[in-house]
Amino acid sequence: MLIYFLCLILFAIGLYGILRKRNIIKIIIGILIAEYAVNLFFVLAGYRQEGRSPIFSPDQDILNMVDPLPQAIVLTSIVIGLAVTALIVGIAIRIYEKYGTFDVTKINRLRG
Amino acid sequence: MIVYILLIMMIIGAIAAIEMKDLISSVIVVGAVGLALSIVFLVLKAPDLAITQLVVEILCLIILIRATLKKDLPFSTTGRWFFNTTVAVVFAVTFLILGFFCLHELPHFGYPVMKVAKFYLDAGLSRTGAANLVASIILDFRAYDTLGEATVLFTAVVGVMAVMRKRGRKKVDEEIGEND
Amino acid sequence: MTRDKYIFDDTKGMTLIVKTITRLTVGLILLYGIYILLHGHVSPGGGFAGGVIIALSFIHIMLAFGKDAAFSRLSKETAAFFEGFGALAFLAIATLGFMGGYFFLNFFQSKGEPFRLFSAGIIPLCNIAISMKVGAGLFSIFVILVLLKFKTKGK
User: Fold this and answer.
1) Which of residues 30-59 of A touch B (CB under 8 A)?
2) Which residues form the domain of A40?
3) What whole-number distance in Å separates Cα of residue C54 and Cα of residue C32?
4) Are A100 and C43 a contacting pair at CB < 8 A?
5) Alpha-carbon distance C103 to C26, whole Å?
6) Over the stretch B141-153, which tens digit does the pLDDT of each residue have?
7) Residue at C153 is within a domain
8) pLDDT bucket at C154, cuts 50 / 70 / 90
9) Residues of chain C neighbouring A86 (CB-CB closer than 8 A)
10) What is the ipTM score, two decimals?
């Protein structure tokens, strides 16, 4: 039960970064950390005590495999996270080129 | 036990990444957190995820360094510093307290409920013939997920192209008109 | 050799040490990506990881030698072609399942002997299609993010 709570703490740190920081790169970092925490939570929920990885072996019967379904879902989620990160970075570079700053509070004022 | 140590290291790294003042150091610390996550996946018996997380982390780091190179923003504490920090901390702590009560409803760590996965474990090898169960799930039993993922990736490529295009067509025409 | 001219060109890319090491290792990285991709159904790995490693090998060339060396191996038009071809091949494999009844049917009658390279029906074909799509897509994202340089307006 403690390990789930540590995972939630990791998510809360990402949430703090998203809410508090004013630099766009820091906000992206917060989003990345929250995404790591969610991926880790899925895999933790499927772990079995003293389990084996979900790959069959030709000469033995493996009975105590871990749950393969969360791993399959997280595998999709990681690649989607990379695509979303690339899109956000593109938008951030565009904002820097237009306003000359990464600060989210100054973007409105410079607009004029 | 090693999972706990790595998780505590990840939490320390995350705090350092959020609070560090230099942008490029902060990005590199996030890379360290991602590589620690890759080792955690390996310890938790998910080798597919470990390989994918490792290579995705490297690419993500290259893209983020590209974004932050030579672009630094000095740390400023102007504005409503106290109010903003209080609101963010209260929000995060409320989330933690509510999550702590919800965690009692989950099955204990190490003893998952495998109702759906029992079918995959029994019939996976005979129905698909693939030894790797994760591959047989993402490409055979639940291939719609992968189709949606390919769509999202394509949309991201098109979105980056649209955002990073040099100039909108209308604006180019206007400027040419002005120059003439 | 036309490609060797990028090694001794001091104006582009990094130093000579990085260029020499890159020339030695980049083939191994590409080979490892292809291995991960083709053995995705019998060992850890698969289409996503293999595609990202293949994209990283071309990105490695671009970081070390500059953009011209990378484009002489994989041009933008080729990347766009592979992106579309991978997506269409994946969709075609999915649609071929209608021969037997439903979408994404594993339509091979004999799925081969398990634990061998040629087994598991459509799964290796899907892996190849997805790796083409992921590799070309991430390479083009990187090219777009790196190549376009803006003049910052400042204040």
Assistant:
1) 30, 32-33, 36, 39-40, 43-49, 51-58
2) 8-45+65-111
3) 8
4) no
5) 39
6) 888 888 888 889 8
7) no
8) very low
9) 138, 141, 145
10) 0.88
